[in-house]
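Please describe our next protein:
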Amino acid sequence: MTQNSSSRENWNLLKDGLLWKRVVEGTTQDFQVQAQAFVSQLQEAVKPADALQGLMLDRIAAGNLRKELLLREESAARAYYSAVRTQAPYGKTKEINQCSIVMCGSPMQVAWSGLNIRQECLLDQGLHRDLILLQHLQSAAQPAAPLPERKPTKSERKVIDGPAAEAILTEEQGSGAT
């Protein structure tokens, strides 16, 4: 991280984030450029106040990018199988090769295993949880509003000692008797 990661200006998801960078490793250059643009927009929208908020933002970015990759792989698998069914008698085409590269380039290779819906659900749950945690962190970091001034209660008023107190007490007793 940068020298003073607790400063709002110094914690930068694009530079300091670790998780989202690991997610985009080994992906296409086009996806990496889109991921960097997404991370920059996320940084600008949230503006994490400290490293803890930055880490939550990093988790949110990584989860969202994983979901994007998962959906791309699922789409490529559908396109691949559709192209194979319609064009296989004529041999492999450029479209089939591109789809197979996306499908087989997946480290999870979930697109055709039937687990993609469960994976997407888990990513959505994690994203939802992280957004709630980030909101809690941001509200806890804001300074509390000052309390309005109030008139002290009767029990909090100062006690008068000495001869002045005896005079006041005698006066109250005298006015109460009449």
User: Anything to note?
Assistant: The chain has a mean pLDDT of 75. The first helix runs from residue 13 to 16. Residues 13-143 form one domain.
